[in-house]
From TrEMBL, chain A:
GO molecular function: cytochrome-c oxidase activity; heme binding; metal ion binding
EC class (word): translocase
Keywords per UniProt: Cell membrane, Copper, Electron transport, Heme, Iron, Membrane, Metal-binding, Respiratory chain, Translocase, Transmembrane, Transmembrane helix, Transport
Keyword Transmembrane helix on entry: yes
Function: Cytochrome c oxidase is the component of the respiratory chain that catalyzes the reduction of oxygen to water. Subunits 1-3 form the functional core of the enzyme complex. CO I is the catalytic subunit of the enzyme. Electrons originating in cytochrome c are transferred via the copper A center of subunit 2 and heme A of subunit 1 to the bimetallic center formed by heme A3 and copper B.
Taxonomic path: Bacteria, Pseudomonadati, Pseudomonadota, Gammaproteobacteria, Oceanospirillales
Name of the protein described by the UniProt record: Cytochrome c oxidase subunit 1
Membrane topology according to the record: Multi-pass membrane protein
Automatic annotation (TrEMBL), chain B:
Record-level Gene Ontology MF annotations: copper ion binding
Protein name, as recorded: Cytochrome c oxidase assembly protein CtaG
NCBIfam families (UniProt xref): PRK05089.1
One Gene Ontology CC term in the entry: plasma membrane
Gene3D superfamilies in UniProt: Ctag/Cox11
Subcellular location: Cell inner membrane
Function: Exerts its effect at some terminal stage of cytochrome c oxidase synthesis, probably by being involved in the insertion of the copper B into subunit I.
Length: 544, 194
């Protein structure tokens, strides 16, 4: 189902190539599987990332469906509680580190060079390496499920000492897998920063960049800042487990609360790593289909930067119930609420871009509009959770589960799907089947809300998260959630079908596949040839 | 890639690698920084791990503070930690002595350590321990009982809104070690002199 990018001679590559005797960079271009293993082309690596992410989306999805099947009715029916815990943990880890993050990196690989007029990423061989680390990391992580004692069962947040003193024997493999995945993210971030800062088309200033490029630049800086902290935390865990240190063991003078501080110092910026590129995608799609320039471009950039900076000051709002002193509760409560301001600026700008636009509702636009509405619902429940005294009631209930699934599924994942539908014509040269795509959209919207909206009620009524069994009064909400989850899961098969059909054929797309699209990627032919912008475009002439 | 671009990329990569190494070191630096921060602000319920001087003997007779004692044993240590009384009423400034009894209920010797914590955490800076079993590790022979006093004072600057202070001691097992001095026995001998 990989988009077949036809190998063409350099002179055909893009309409901007004018140099005589265009050099063939790959005299011995490998074919077959070696082509994909050894590729240094940003488009092929982007495709690999996206296929990997899609496969892991289904693996993580199956884990979620095991959880939902067990929760279909009260009592223990299908799986043992120990296996249930492994499923919730693996679902979280796979979705965060193997589905959402690689999907954004894949989109960055494909689109950033095209959007800034660069011939490739700055470090193509490193790019290949950072992709191929991922299958290694997640094969290792998934293999822990088959090990004696089972895989990680302590939740994706792996709080010590649950993940050290009381952890299964496979935890060392989990740590190694996370290290490898972290190195992959870090290398990807270095590459993206180096590309954006050095390889923009002549005449393109930072404030001329498309917002997807901007949001990814800021995301990459967040990755550089916090992935080493994650690496540090899991290294400390490794030493506590294997080398007798006591970073998180109170008996040896350590402190379990320190683990939570360190983890969330990584973990909260990580949340924004998973949403900022989504903001960028939506900021590209809404102006295209509203046929108006984005309202408040500069304020979008500053709001993104503000969210990124604030993300370092709010981590302890995940820890309101560990016994923080009052002054800390207040500080983290107010700083968290402050994030609603730049986020509100973004939502305002999207809505204002739509205002009096000539809107058409193709599938990318449908997903982007659903993103704006449903992500905002997730934002509001986040504000409720930010109220420290109220969080004492909500903490570790299904209300939290509802909140972060609203910002991640109809947030990050809908934005990724919107981006896929938006750029598929550029990748494959064909429009996706619009009828099927619309069915996919409506099934997804209904499925998401059916799954996650009742979780708000179950949580407010007191249902704790991460439990395989529950009190009878939660039965109806869980029944609805489980039906919704299977409906949503099944409708994603439609997504795969649309992509396969689109790769194999469909209505041919012109270079500028959408009427209102303006960015540089729409100046190269569809499908984008393997090599583009070998001679940099002159940005001003194209744009203004 | 053109050469000035290659140069720019090299510089950017160098800078990001330095930032990466800095952040990795920062994560480890946070461990001691966290302890220092908690000690300075006293917001973690942690108290000094060594004996402190009595600041003043002036007792505020007008004010009573309830001090509660909670003892817990973590998994893996067959010990019990008892306390002669669960609760005392004292005045700020008043020197107080409370006996704690360690009992090893297994048939073999083992090492343990009681880790203290104070609640509310804002009171921790005002608890002055002159002598505490929690300053040392203990070794108990099979079925041995060991009584050690806690001598402490709540200083006069204890905030007015604090009426109850809870001292929590959690026992943790330690690996057998011959290098550790047998401090507990030493203290036990001096018991009468404190």
């Amino acid at each position: 189902m990989a988009p077949r990018i036809p190998l063409q001679s350099p002179l055909q590559h893009s309409d901007t190539v004018a140099t005589a005797g265009g050099v063939d960079h790959h005299p011995s271009q490998p074919t077959g599987w070696r082509r994909w293993l050894l590729t240094t082309n940003h488009k092929e690596i982007g495709t690999l990332y996206l296929i990997f992410s899609l496969s892991m989306f289904f693996v993580g999805g199956i884990f979620a469906l095991v959880v939902r099947a067990e929760l279909f009715q009260p009592g223990l029916q299908l799986v043992e509680p120990e296996f249930f815990n492994q499923m919730t943990t693996m679902h979280g880890l796979i979705m965060v580190f193997a589905a959402v993050m690689p999907a954004f990196t894949g989109l960055a690989n494909w689109m950033i060079p095209l959007q800034i007029g660069a011939p490739d990423m700055a470090l193509p061989r490193l790019n290949n390496f950072s992709f191929w680390l991922l299958p290694v990391a997640f094969t290792l992580l998934l293999s822990t499920l088959l090990m004696p004692g089972g895989g990680p069962n302590f939740g994706w947040t792996f709080y010590a000492p649950l993940s050290t003193t009381y952890a299964p024997a496979s935890t060392t493999f989990f740590i190694l897998a996370l290290h490898i995945a972290g190195i992959s993210s870090i290398l990807g971030a270095i590459n993206i920063i180096a590309t954006i800062l050095n390889m923009r088309a002549p005449g393109m200033r930072l404030m001329d960049m498309p917002l997807f490029v901007w949001t990814w630049l800021i995301t990459a800086f967040l990755l550089i800042a916090v992935m080493p902290v994650l690496a540090g935390v899991i290294t400390m865990m490794l030493m506590d487990i294997n080398f007798g240190t006591s970073f998180f063991d109170a008996g040896g003078g350590g402190d379990p609360v320190l683990f939570q501080h360190l983890f969330w110092f990584f973990g909260h910026p990580e949340v924004y790593i998973m949403i900022l590129p989504a903001f960028g995608i939506v900021s590209a799609i809404i102006p295209t289909f509203a046929r108006k320039p984005l309202f408040g471009y500069a304020s979008m950039v500053y709001a993104t930067a503000a969210i990124a900076l604030l993300s370092f000051l709010v981590w302890a709002h995940h820890m309101f119930v560990v016994g923080l002193p009052l002054v800390a509760e207040l500080f983290f409560m107010y700083s968290t609420m402050l994030i609603a301001v730049p986020t509100g600026v973004k939502v305002f700008n999207w809505v204002t871009t739509l205002f009096r636009g000539s809107i058409s509702f193709e599938s990318p636009m449908l997903f982007a509009l659903a993103f704006v509405v449903l992500f905002t619902i997730g934002g509001f429940s986040g504000l409720m959770l930010a109220i420290a005294p109220a969080d004492f009631q909500y903490h570790d209930t299904y209300f939290v589960v509802a909140h972060f699934h609203y910002v991640l599924v109809p947030g990050a994942i809908f934005a990724i799907m919107a981006g896929v539908y938006y750029w598929l014509p550029k990748w494959t040269g064909h429009y996706p089947n619009e009828t099927l795509a619309k069915w996919h959209f409506w099934f997804s919207v209904i499925g998401v809300n059916l799954t996650f909206f009742p979780m708000h009620f179950a949580g407010l009524a007191g249902m704790p998260r991460r439990i395989p069994d529950y009190a009878l009064q939660f039965a109806d909400f869980n029944l609805v959630s489980s039906i919704g989850a299977f409906f949503f899961g099944a409708s994603q098969l439609l997504f795969v079908l649309v992509i396969i059909l689109c790769v194999r054929g469909g209505k041919p797309a012109p270079a500028k596949a959408w009427e209102g699209a303006v960015d540089l990627e729409w100046t190269v032919p569809s499908p984008a040839p393997l090599h583009t912008f070998e001679t940099p475009p002159v940005f001003r002439q194209i744009e203004k | 890639m053109r050469s000035h671009q290659a140069e720019g990329v090299r510089k950017t990569v160098t800078k990001t690698i330095f930032a990466l190494m800095g952040m990795f070191a920062f994560a480890f630096a946070l461990v001691p920084l966290y302890d220092v921060f908690c000690e300075v602000t006293g917001i973690n319920g942690k108290v000094s791990t060594s004996a402190q001087q009595v600041l003043s003997n002036e007792v505020n007779r007008d004010r009573y503070v309830t001090v509660q004692f909670i003892t817990r044993t973590s998994a893996g240590l067959p010990w019990r930690l008892g306390v002669e009384t669960r609760q005392v009423q004292i005045h700020p400034g008043q020197m107080t002595e409370v006996d704690f009894t360690f009992s090893n209920r297994s048939q073999s010797a083992s090492w343990g350590r009681a880790v203290p914590s104070v609640s509310p955490s804002t009171a921790s800076a005002h608890v002055r321990k002159v002598s505490c079993f929690c300053f040392q590790e203990q070794r108990l022979d099979a079925n041995e009982n060991l009584t050690i006093p806690l001598v402490f004072q709540l200083d006069n600057t204890l905030p007015e809104d604090i009426a109850t202070v809870t001292l929590v001691y959690t026992l943790y097992p330690l690996e057998e070690s011959n290098e550790r001095p047998i401090v507990a026995r030493h203290m036990n001998n001096k018991n009468g002199e404190i």
